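for the writeup, i need someone to sanity check this before i put it in the appendix. the sequnce is what the collaborator sent (i think, or maybe the updated version? ugh). structure was predicted straight from it, no edits. if anything looks off just tell me and ill rerun, i have time this weekend
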Amino acid sequence: MSDVPLSHILFVSTALFFIGMYGLFTRRNLITMLMSIELMLNSVNINFVAFNKYLFPQNLEGIFFTIFIITIAAAEAAIAIAIIINLYRSHQSIDVEDATELKF
């Protein structure tokens, strides 16, 4: 079985990162912005695993960084969803422009 070249993996990772960046900058919905950030983090994870496999296959630093990022992303998603629910309760909307007028 032949290996996929590193350039192909980096191309897919770069495409995922820029799709996530496009979604982050063009969407006003907080949930789609959160999904875009998760997409960007997953593209970084692909880079870590790919460089670990091709450059240092005997070490596991890329895998450990990936597990760490997945853990941080899960905690970030849980906190962000709690904030989004709180904003929805106070503003009846999850659009970013409606959230600029925060009232405490």
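Residues 6-100 form a domain with the Helix Hairpins fold (CATH 1.10.287.3510). The chain has one domain: 6-100.
thx in advance!!
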